[in-house]
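Re: beginner question about structure tokens

> Can someone show what the tokenized structure looks like for a real chain? I only ever see the sequence side.

Sure, here's an example I had lying around. Input first:
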Amino acid sequence: MPKIVAIIQARMGSARLPGKVMMDVGGKALLGHLIGRLRQVPLIHQVAVATTTDSADAKIVEFCKRAKVNVYQGSESDVLARYIEAGRLFKADVVIRVTGDEPYHDPVIMREFLRAHLNNKEDVEYTCNNFPRTFPYGNTVEIIKFPALERAARMGLQPQDREHVTFYIHQHPAEFKIQNIQAQGKLKRPDIRYCVDTQADLNLIRTVFDHLGKKTPYFTMEQIIDLLDQHDEIRQINRHCQQKRVAYSPEAIKQE
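And the corresponding structure tokens:
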């Protein structure tokens, strides 16, 4: 069994909502919700946080120490290098890339994706659900064999390659064995958004927790979808928020 490490990229210096990963949601830091959910996935051997050497991120380091989570500090701008260095430090064979602004990852969905990745007969290198996206924004899954990530780091030298970690893979799909899993049935909802980029997003996240989290700490994606469909006033909280787009080449878009 390969060593699977979930690496969360997190920093305090978010442009639109600084310090969001440490903001309180139901008495717990947003980052704490995410760590707790990843720890519910039995196939994950280790959960770690990759933050930066910026002095502001000392708060994240201290939080990780209290939560007994391994943490690595690296470059603020070269996030891909940060992942490579963290992956080597934690001896990862497979890396799950997780962003700190998606606190409500569904452990069951993550487990299913890991099984699909590990059981693939074609020796897939990258399993994801965002190429194209059919799941809600807030449950992005990216599973990468570490040698493939190292190859992307050697080849991807442009600023966007370094900032977005898997950008080079998306730009050059012919160079990697990619498995994109599409949502089925009621989970096929790319129109739903529960990631956190703005104050409005955070307000929605807190409202979802008030409705679901007090009874079921690890509520599912399906429960979130049902809640938002039944309570349009909650969906309206962040409906005006736009997802930050990453521009892919025409060739990559054709692949999607």
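Each token stands for a local structural state, so reading them left to right follows the chain. Residues 250-256 have pLDDT under 50 and may be disordered.
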